[in-house]
Amino acid sequence: MNHPSALRPSSIPPVLRLLASLGLVALAGCSSAQTADAAIPAAGRPMWDQCSSSISAWCHRQGQGDPTLDRECEGTAAREYSALADDAARRQYLTARACTL
Predict the structure, then answer these.
(1) Among 85, 76, 72, residue whose Cα is nearest residue 41
(2) Whole-model pTM?
(3) Would you write out the chain's pLDDT as a tens digit for each of its 101 residues?
């Protein structure tokens, strides 16, 4: 049987609470990036897939290596790219982010 104090948040060491919180933040960041990536229209998918490593590298430079900023940048890039109306605009967007098509 569990001791009553085992159910209290104060009985959880602060380090474990911090790690759990950081894990949830990381999962939320990954989830939003995947959701934005999934919203890319079928017509734009081939160019996006071709440039995904360039976008990741560009975001890594923009975020100066901070994983949270990298994910935010990638999610923003996917959302912005998804909103573009045609191939010409998509191509321009990707080339501005270091992708050679």
Answers:
(1) 85
(2) 0.63
(3) 555 555 555 677 766 666 666 655 555 444 444 556 768 999 999 999 999 999 999 999 999 989 999 999 999 999 999 999 999 999 999 999 999 98
